[in-house]
Input
Amino acid sequence: MNWVYNPWPWYVSGPLITLVMFLLLMIGKRFGMSSNLRTMCTLCGAGKTSDFFRFDWKTQRWNLIVVLGVIIGGFIANTFLSKDSAVDLNPAMIIDLRSKGFESAGNAYMPDILFSNDVFTSPKNLLLLILGGLLVGFGARYAGGCTSGHAISGLGNLQLPSLIAVIGFFIGGLLMIHFIFPLIF
Amino acid sequence: MRSIIYLSIGIFFGIILFKSEAASWFRIYEMFQFASFHMYGIIGSAVGLGVIVIQLIKRYSVKSFYGDPITITPKDRSFSRYMFGGIIFGLGWALAGACPGPMFALLGAGYTPIIIVILSAILGTFLYGVLKDKLPH
Output
């Protein structure tokens, strides 16, 4: 049982994600996490501002329950299924990240400077989290899906729109890491 | 009853996201630096197996557990919305290090600042809804 406590290798995790997509198809649903963000807008009353949010949120209730499950799953995995959650990064990345101020690289699951409560005292890093979230939410809806809807189920269904979107995800990610990070870290 | 099924699938998915380290900011950074095969292995094997599963479902007209036909509605044809939307999403994915699934797994794992990312992502979705008709699709 010790393997459970270690990080799961890609050849276990990848097929398990396919299993999640398959199970959702088999109960008549579609895999897509970012549409929940739209439902949450509707729940907050965004329908008054834009008809994009005017739909019966109850048709998406199932997906909100999946999200609730994901939250519980994250809690279970971190609390009961992990002894040491430090991510075993490529050593070159550890040196690179530490030189950029990410001191916890190699010793933690998430970078301290962005995801420990210290961030609440750093306006710059707080702003980066806000900007990151805004871009993810805006971009996912503009593209009509995120990693689950486009990369996993869309590519799985051999859809050209999803291939374009995934190429876009990578262009954006590479621009951020290689051209914008040197300016901000 | 069905709610329990949805909840169980969510719990299962949340555990996978956390334990696979796909929810780790560091892994996303490493992926965009091409410094590790890990994330490519996860996405590649999930997609590769997904292609096989979906093709089999289509070829054998597999019915859902409730006996209904499984249909996957194709996305609308367009280039600009997928490319521009994709780039915007990618910029945020690399910066926040989390996409819409892992965000919630991280919330459960107790990384409190992720709440900022989640609330901003909801706000970003709202902004899209407001600006939608002015954007090229």
